[in-house]
Design goal:
This protein has no helices and eleven strands. By secondary structure, it is mainly β.
């Protein structure tokens, strides 16, 4: 079965960095677009970043553009999110999400499997 396991979250100081990882199994990772989404306390879901199956194209939310970088290693079936210059407003539960096709998008309908999430906390 499809399994997505996030890791790398934790407590980071403002201006600091974290790298999230998502280990995927149960499907042919290299055939699917992948995404990171987050939910902050009391707020709705935000699509943070997406990446094509071959890594050639990416999308970033305006709130993270220039600070976060999405990448993937198809040989290791792993998705990454490199987060730099972290801000208190980045505090959220971060989810790794599998797309339904090679091209990702930024809505729930085009994704079919979610990880359990990893918490990122940046104190103010």
């Amino acid at each position: 079965q499809v399994k997505l396991v996030e890791s790398g979250g934790g407590l980071a100081q403002p201006g600091g960095s974290l790298r999230l990882s998502c280990a995927a199994s149960g499907f042919t990772f290299s055939n699917y677009g992948m995404s990171w989404a987050r939910r902050a306390p009391g707020k709705g879901l935000e699509w943070v970043s997406t990446i094509y199956d071959d890594g050639t194209a990416t999308y970033y939310a305006d709130s993270v553009k220039g600070r976060f970088t999405i990448s993937r290693d198809n040989a290791k079936d792993t998705l990454y999110l490199h987060m730099n210059n972290l801000k208190p407003e980045d505090t959220a539960l971060y989810y790794c999400v599998k797309g339904r096709s090679s091209a990702p998008c930024t809505n729930t309908a085009c994704h079919d499997f979610w990880g359990q999430g990893t918490q990122v906390t940046v104190p103010s």
